[in-house]
Amino acid sequence: MIEIEDLTVQYGSTVALDDVSFSVKGPAVGLLGPNGAGKTTLIRGLLGFLKPANGTGRVLGHSILNERLRVRELVGYLPEDDCLVPEMSAVRFLTYFGELCGMPKDDATQRAHEILHYVGLGEARYRNVETFSAGMKQRIKLAQSLIHDPKLLLLDEPTNGMDPAGREEMLSLIEDISRKKGIGVLVSTHLLPDVEAVCEEVVVLDRGRMVIHGNIADLKGENRKVYEVRVWGNTEVFCDRLLRSGCEWREWKDDLIKVSVPEEQGANRIFTAAKESGSQIRHLVFEKGSLEQVFVESLKGKQEE
Amino acid sequence: MPVYDQSYKGWEGKLKSHSLRWWVVTKYGVKTAFKKKAVRGLLMFALLPFIASAVYIYGLTHIGKVSAFVRTLGGGRAMPDLSVKTYDAAIESGLEQFVERLRKEKIGWQETHQGLRIFLPEGENSKRIFAIARQTGTRLKRVMPPGVKPSFYNAYLKRQFPFLFILLLAIGAGLIAKDVKFNALQIYLAKPITGTQYILGKLGILAFFLVMVTLVPELVLFLLQAILVGDSLYIRNYWWIAGAICASSALIALSGALIVLALSALSKNVRSAALGGAAVFWLSPAVAEILRRSTWDRDYMLLSLPYNWVCVGEKIFGLTEMTSHTHWVFSLLIVCGLMVLCGVALLRRVRGVEVVK
């Protein structure tokens, strides 16, 4: 879906994206990162709004440097900011952008009505867009990104400014689009629950660098069980035994270590390793993996580097 | 059970080619502007000089015949009837034989400072004059049917300036400023449309309205004139006026539109853009005039954009009695320079993302 290779984008002397490389298949990918991480810059780079200082990328097989118009034909974009063309009704707004994409007028008009119903703005379709509430503006932005039936949606903070109910609806729309309609989705947000709700894959950025990338289930350790362990005795031998028995471990804090055990096996592996190494288990807590934990840990790890 | 499936459906159609995407921007912009009563009213008001000019041309081609007849009677020369066609002829040699022949054939004429004014009976045309010239061995320098001259069309353009300025500011000031203010540029440019196409589209909106008050009425007046004269000689002699009208109107429309669009792109505020435009169109001539009068240096007039338009226009229409005091090349360079500057400013400002370095 998206391939990025050594992408560097600068605003004057400020490096907004620093040598970012990844490849995602979708259908739903989360782009996570704190404010100023470079998420919006990355999306703008994919759309060809910004000229990279270095590197290249491909969206749906098309170069972001040389085939910008083709990329834009295949991609729908929901910007972070409030964006609208004043003095236009919702239907006219969508028809306009449909025609700008190259759709015939009749098709654009019919599709504008359909999309507005789909995003829940059917009743408000003859209202001028500047009179819409914040939630409605998010929906109309989603509608305009869908008007030309794109193959990929780039959504920049899609639930920004929405109330909880509206947010839920927006997330279900995004989920429906990506899972049932076959449209790839890249959701840029700093809200982890949003990504967890709709995405299978995640890319985490921090200060312009890619921190972590992979399948959310793998990153959360959903296929493995994670235990927080403290042992008394020969820790080195204990860890060695763990590795031999197919477990993974890493130092956590103080004298605690985190042990990851394959899902089908339980804590018995840990006890066996302790027994074999002549150590005692003094502390053993099962830990449920979350994206937030992965996110925080990866950021911490990067900062320590 | 729903009557119509309201879930998301794909679209199987084929997208049109890229080349005419700017036309969509123009089409929607023109429709939006036409929805405003003020714009419609202004356009109607701008038609008043056109109506007055049409009446003038009609009167000139009809009443001119009557007055010519009266003048001929006063001169004691023969006049077949009231229905006559008037021609102005400049003669190089053989004037006496030519006049003698006119007398014999009972064709009315009178001397003018440029040559002869000939009154042909209705139904005749310039071919008769050329035939007489051939028979008498007269060398004709020029034969002109009656009617308004190039200066008339140049003056018409000048008279349209106030409407032009108001239309430019009323429609143009907000064209890009509103898109910048409402962050619409990033949705525009996320679609398969380039910044240049977007600018072209916006330019098209202004050009449409400017052409409506300059080029279109002038060309209609020119055609009206040709029809009322009823002689192909008019078109043959004056066909270039149509070209001059097109060139002059295009220069004014393009430069005016580019200036207003650039001002609109440089500001998020429509009023600021309009004030900037007002300064260019009204303040610059005033300042130029004050400087000219206080220093007695005519070159200061080049500071005025409308003056430069007039100066170039007079050259395009080939006027011999120029109202402008400076060389037209300077004015053309200034107008072209402004256009280039505005074009560069537009290309720099119309981007999907505003980069603050």
Structural overview:
The complex is a heterodimer of chains A (305) and B (357). Chain A has 305 residues and is an alpha/beta fold. Chain A has two domains: 2-218, Rossmann fold (3-Layer(aba) Sandwich), CATH 3.40.50.300; 223-288, Alpha-Beta Plaits, CATH 3.30.70. Helices cover 38% and strands 29% of the residues of chain A. In chain A, the strands form three sheets. A six-stranded mixed β-sheet of chain A has the order 6-7-8-3-9-10, sandwiched between helices. In chain A, strands 2-1-4-5 form a four-stranded antiparallel β-sheet, covered by helices on one side. In chain A, a hairpin with a 2-residue loop joins strand 1 (2-11) and strand 2. Chain A is elongated and about 80 Å long. Chain A starts with a strand and ends with a helix. Chain B has 357 residues and is an alpha+beta fold. Chain B has two domains: 21-54 and 150-349, no CATH class; 77-144, Alpha-Beta Plaits (2-Layer Sandwich). Chain B contains 14 helices and four strands. Chain B has helices at residues 21-34, 37-46, 48-75, 95-104, 126-136, 150-159, 161-181, 185-188, 195-213, 215-229, 232-266, 270-295, 305-316, 328-349, and strands spanning 84-93, 108-112, 115-121, 139-144. The termini of chain B are far apart. The model of chain B is unreliable at 78-82 (pLDDT under 50). The interface between A and B is large, with 50 and 37 residues.
